[in-house]
Amino acid sequence: MLPARMNPQVQPECSGAGQGPGQLRNQQPQQQLQPPPPLQPTRKAVELVLVKKQNGVQCVLAPRGGDSQPRETWGKKIDFLLSVIGFAVDLANVWRFPYLCYKNGGGAFLIPYTLFLIIAGMPLFYMELALGQYNREGAATVWKICPFFKGVGYAVILIALYVGFYYNVIIAWSLYYLFSSFTLNLPWTNCDHPWNSPNCTDSKFLNGSVLGNGTKYSKYKNTPAAEFYERGVLHLHESNGIHDIGMPQWQLSLCLMVVVIILFFSLWKGVKTSGKVVWITATLPYLVLFVLLIHGITLPGAYNGITAYLHIDFRRLKEATVWIDAATQIFYSLGAGFGVLIAFASYNKFDNNCYRDALLTSTINCVTSFISGFAIFSILGYMAHEHKVKIEDVATEGAGLVFILYPEAISTLAGSTFWAIVFFIMLLALGIDSSMGGMEAVITGLADDFQILKRHRKLFTFAVTFGTFLLALFCITKGGIYVLTLLDTFAAGTSILFAVLMEAIGVSWFYGVDRFSNDIQQMMGFKPGLYWRLCWKFVSPAFLLFVVVVSIINFKPLTYDDYVFPLWANCVGWGIALSSMVLVPAYIIYKFLSLRGSLKERLAYCITPENEHHLVAQRNVRQFKLQHWLAI
């Protein structure tokens, strides 16, 4: 028996529009069929499922909700590809991967990184694209395939919303730096500004002998660039800790407002508008990265930086931390689990080749991470050469790299204003399309679940974007960096790993790898190979379980430089993490208690796809048979 979905607006001639599935099954194939009446505007959309049999075709009509409008699709295939690439290629590709590669054995790090990409990253990426495209639903309603796991959808939507609170702030920083770059003398080049401290030291006078042994240049906080970031932008010196955050800063508030306005007008009409915005935001970073790379390799010391980046130390592969770093980086880099890939793929045409898309976009993402390392380390090599220090003294990751070290290096180049503008435009573009993806996951996920939100999508989009603006104000106060660090650590840490683990188990075990493979065959005409099915059923869940356990074991009390967060702040952080994770068991309990019948019947309805609930009444529950759990 091979089910095949059809587009709702392409309806076969069938006289059983008002009959139940049992009545339709009793009809003979030779029966004269009458054309259905024309669709009325208020008529509920239907999903047509054709089940091929030897003696004919069985037609089953299943209500899909109250929205009679067909689901919109991407204007062009390239819109979808650029959206996925734009979401996956974000700031972490620039500020995290190159440093991880450098500190974990250089070229040797590519071995575990590539291995985890092949056995876990790509299979999860492929699974989410196929899941969204086949069901044409957001992260919550896609779980009609196994209602027990709908809480996973709500969890990832909440996590995506949490990330939007602080990720937009990082984009606002980039915009503030961009505005500050429109001057002949960049504001982070000297100590003559009101925000500078008496200890500010011009970077031209800093070298290995001045810093002394054991002091890394990247950790020195009194350079003009470091003071511009922490005192001029963040005003961190005016806060004593997370208990003393103060009021929002008006300059950053305006920048945040601009970012939110850009996001709103990029998303308010759905993928028709966002698919055009990514033509700029997803391609511009590549152009800028190429220009920075070409210029960077011409600088003195660039060769030493690139050599340090590519050095190969196979001995590091004996260390567990290298494999842990590779596993976590490949997971966060591809962006599986945030509901974004499911939302994007749900707007594809039913027969789109999402297998090819998964391989292409995930490979581009990882290659971009590797190539960005050349642009970063050519500049770090130049800085080490200028200050007569070792590469390890200037190498760092995170905000310190893109908002302190890189701007400082740019300020010493000829035409520094141009290079600063170009660099921060790249950061702005990298952030915007990634944030667009997260917002789309929230909007699509909830709009598909609640039809009133779908009917008022523009108003709902405004509510989501403006809501993130209001909550993000906590992150642009004078102590906002502490709030941002808290959210960055807990909002999408262990919680997102747990959610994706549940997603992998729900699809591969409860729904079934064989049934999922049949869905893919209906879309693209071919069934996934044994390799993909084994990865989905065994390797990916094991990989995710490993990363979840490691993230818990390696947890350390939160710090920001020398500041140690109080115990209550760590408790708040875990509360934020648990607020999303608890939705998974909470919905399971709610779903189970909301149904009628015996315990076995309620369990059957919870783990059976919604379009097969009629089989529960017939006591034909696939999940109650050993064959289901052994199938691959």
From TrEMBL:
<feature type="binding site">
    <location>
        <position position="88"/>
    </location>
    <ligand>
        <name>Na(+)</name>
    </ligand>
</feature>
<feature type="binding site">
    <location>
        <position position="433"/>
    </location>
    <ligand>
        <name>Na(+)</name>
    </ligand>
</feature>
<feature type="transmembrane region" description="Helical">
    <location>
        <begin position="567"/>
        <end position="590"/>
    </location>
</feature>
<feature type="region of interest" description="Disordered">
    <location>
        <begin position="1"/>
        <end position="39"/>
    </location>
</feature>
<dbReference type="GO" id="GO:0005328">
    <property type="term" value="F:neurotransmitter:sodium symporter activity"/>
</dbReference>
<dbReference type="InterPro" id="IPR002435">
    <property type="entry name" value="Na/ntran_symport_noradrenaline"/>
</dbReference>
<feature type="disulfide bond">
    <location>
        <begin position="191"/>
        <end position="200"/>
    </location>
</feature>
<feature type="transmembrane region" description="Helical">
    <location>
        <begin position="323"/>
        <end position="347"/>
    </location>
</feature>
<keyword id="KW-0532">Neurotransmitter transport</keyword>
<dbReference type="GO" id="GO:0046872">
    <property type="term" value="F:metal ion binding"/>
</dbReference>
<keyword id="KW-0479">Metal-binding</keyword>
<feature type="transmembrane region" description="Helical">
    <location>
        <begin position="534"/>
        <end position="555"/>
    </location>
</feature>
<keyword id="KW-0325">Glycoprotein</keyword>
<dbReference type="Pfam" id="PF00209">
    <property type="entry name" value="SNF"/>
</dbReference>
<feature type="binding site">
    <location>
        <position position="434"/>
    </location>
    <ligand>
        <name>Na(+)</name>
    </ligand>
</feature>
<feature type="transmembrane region" description="Helical">
    <location>
        <begin position="152"/>
        <end position="179"/>
    </location>
</feature>
<keyword id="KW-0813">Transport</keyword>
<feature type="binding site">
    <location>
        <position position="365"/>
    </location>
    <ligand>
        <name>Na(+)</name>
    </ligand>
</feature>
<feature type="transmembrane region" description="Helical">
    <location>
        <begin position="490"/>
        <end position="513"/>
    </location>
</feature>
<keyword id="KW-0472">Membrane</keyword>
<dbReference type="GO" id="GO:0042734">
    <property type="term" value="C:presynaptic membrane"/>
</dbReference>
<dbReference type="GO" id="GO:0003779">
    <property type="term" value="F:actin binding"/>
</dbReference>
<feature type="binding site">
    <location>
        <position position="93"/>
    </location>
    <ligand>
        <name>Na(+)</name>
    </ligand>
</feature>
<feature type="transmembrane region" description="Helical">
    <location>
        <begin position="110"/>
        <end position="131"/>
    </location>
</feature>
<feature type="transmembrane region" description="Helical">
    <location>
        <begin position="459"/>
        <end position="484"/>
    </location>
</feature>
<feature type="transmembrane region" description="Helical">
    <location>
        <begin position="250"/>
        <end position="268"/>
    </location>
</feature>
<feature type="binding site">
    <location>
        <position position="86"/>
    </location>
    <ligand>
        <name>Na(+)</name>
    </ligand>
</feature>
<dbReference type="GO" id="GO:0048265">
    <property type="term" value="P:response to pain"/>
</dbReference>
<feature type="binding site">
    <location>
        <position position="89"/>
    </location>
    <ligand>
        <name>Na(+)</name>
    </ligand>
</feature>
<dbReference type="GO" id="GO:0005330">
    <property type="term" value="F:dopamine:sodium symporter activity"/>
</dbReference>
<keyword id="KW-1015">Disulfide bond</keyword>
<dbReference type="GO" id="GO:0006865">
    <property type="term" value="P:amino acid transport"/>
</dbReference>
<dbReference type="GO" id="GO:0051583">
    <property type="term" value="P:dopamine uptake involved in synaptic transmission"/>
</dbReference>
<comment type="similarity">
    <text>Belongs to the sodium:neurotransmitter symporter (SNF) (TC 2.A.22) family.</text>
</comment>
<dbReference type="InterPro" id="IPR000175">
    <property type="entry name" value="Na/ntran_symport"/>
</dbReference>
<feature type="compositionally biased region" description="Low complexity">
    <location>
        <begin position="22"/>
        <end position="33"/>
    </location>
</feature>
<dbReference type="GO" id="GO:0032809">
    <property type="term" value="C:neuronal cell body membrane"/>
</dbReference>
<keyword id="KW-1003">Cell membrane</keyword>
<feature type="transmembrane region" description="Helical">
    <location>
        <begin position="404"/>
        <end position="430"/>
    </location>
</feature>
<feature type="binding site">
    <location>
        <position position="430"/>
    </location>
    <ligand>
        <name>Na(+)</name>
    </ligand>
</feature>
<feature type="transmembrane region" description="Helical">
    <location>
        <begin position="80"/>
        <end position="98"/>
    </location>
</feature>
<dbReference type="GO" id="GO:0005334">
    <property type="term" value="F:norepinephrine:sodium symporter activity"/>
</dbReference>
